[in-house]
Structures are given as C-alpha cells and as structure tokens.
C-alpha cells in the first residue's frame, strides 16, 4: 500500500478503470459552514491519492475532470455529504455514483450498523481505526496518522461494492439501489439550498 499526498490537484496520467473510490475530509459536518480540506481517491489497487485543497481557489482541473467524468463510477460511503461538498466547493456534480451506505441499508436489513467501519469489518474482514476522525483537517501540514486515516476511508470501497452488488442482486434490489444513487446529486442540491432536514416526499 502506498499513500501519496498531492497539493491542490492530481498529477496527469492517473487512471481509474474500475471506478474511483472517493471520500472527503472537511472542517466539520455542516455544508453551509465548513470548508472542504481534502479529497481522497483510490483505484481499488491498495493505493490512495490524497489531494489537499488550496481553499483560497480550489483550482484543481484534473481532479474536477475525474469527478465529473460520466464514464467513471464514483464509489463513496454516505455519498450525500461528499457530493454536496464537491458541488459547493469544486462546482462539479459527481455522477454516476455508487453509495455503499445506501446499498448496505437496502440489503443488510439484519442490522442497524451501517457505518464504514462496520461494513469493512464484515465484508472485507479488516479493522479500521477511527482515532483521527475528529482532527484538524485544515492544518497546513497533515500528520502521518491523518494521512493513514484518510486513506483507509477509500481503500476498501471497491471490495464493499463487489460484496454489496452480490447481495443486491440476491435480494432483487439492484434497480432500486441504482435509482437511489441517481437521485443523490438532487438530494445534495436540496441540502445546499435549504432543505437538509425536510422530507419533501412526506404528506405534511
């Protein structure tokens, strides 16, 4: 496994033929208040690329092109938040999307534990550390512990997708999952424009 930290953008020449695992680190969990600090990526090959944002400009054309590429599936866990962050700060709508959390909720109905750590333990047989989950991602220099933590959030997403796809097909819920994934950019847009906690499909 290798972890490469890039400043402001991805280098030329990186390819993600089997889709790209994506995650973000931010100053907090508010789309309105908190800034995007880091974008993590993996091709599913055991390596991770971390792009530390220049938050004055967010000038990262290679990263934006990858996230906007309609031929490359973006694999995320709780995609709703990351899609919103990328829409707001990079001006890019990510699609197509695969969300492992949504897939988990559709097929792992035998549990209410759908966090990434729980999924990785059950479906990938690995234990993840969440020690750096609450840390200063806006720091000028990220620590090795922060980089290791950030990388771990994308290293297993391809494996999770493979396992969850089998379960979705078995339960006859593949098309339902795909419909949910397709709605995520619209759900993120609702979050960004003032309806984060409102169920617009509810009667009242």
Structure, explained:
This protein has one domain: Nucleotidyltransferase, domain 5 (2-Layer Sandwich), CATH 3.30.420.10. A six-stranded mixed beta sheet has the order 1-4-3-2-5-6, with helices on both faces. By secondary structure, the chain is α/β, with parallel strands linked by helices. It has helices at residues 61-68, 79-90, 100-107, 116-124, 144-155, 157-171, 174-192, and strands at 3-7, 20-26, 36-42, 48-52, 74-76, 97-99.
* CATH level 1 name: Alpha Beta
Strand order of the largest sheet: 1-4-3-2-5-6
CATH superfamily: Ribonuclease H-like superfamily/Ribonuclease H
Overall pLDDT, averaged?
95
Order of helices and strands: EEEEHEHEHHHHH
Question: What is the topological layout?
Answer:
Blueprint: E1 3-7, E2 20-26, E3 36-42, E4 48-52, H1 61-68, E5 74-76, H2 79-90, E6 97-99, H3 100-107, H4 116-124, H5 144-155, H6 157-171, H7 174-192
Parallel strand pairs: 1-4, 2-5, 5-6
Antiparallel strand pairs: 2-3, 3-4
């Amino acid at each position: 496994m290798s972890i490469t930290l890039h400043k402001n953008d991805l280098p030329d020449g990186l390819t993600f033929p089997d889709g790209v695992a994506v995650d973000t680190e931010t100053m907090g969990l508010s789309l309105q208040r908190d800034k995007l600090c880091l974008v993590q990526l993996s091709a599913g090959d055991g390596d991770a690329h971390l792009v530390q944002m220049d938050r004055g400009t967010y000038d990262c054309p290679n990263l934006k092109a990858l996230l906007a590429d309609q031929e490359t599936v973006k694999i995320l866990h709780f995609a709703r938040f990351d899609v919103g962050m990328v829409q707001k700060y990079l001006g890019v709508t990510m699609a197509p999307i695969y969300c492992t959390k949504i897939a988990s909720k559709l097929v792992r109905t035998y549990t209410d534990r759908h966090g990434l750590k729980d999924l990785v333990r059950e479906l990938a047989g690995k234990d993840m550390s969440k020690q750096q989950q609450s840390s200063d991602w806006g720091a000028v220099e990220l620590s090795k512990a922060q980089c290791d933590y950030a990388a771990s959030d994308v290293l297993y997403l391809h494996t999770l997708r493979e396992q969850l796809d089998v379960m979705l097909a078995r339960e006859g819920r593949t098309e339902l999952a795909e419909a949910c994934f397709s709605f995520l950019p619209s759900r993120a847009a609702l979050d960004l424009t003032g309806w984060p906690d409102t169920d617009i499909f509810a009667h009242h």
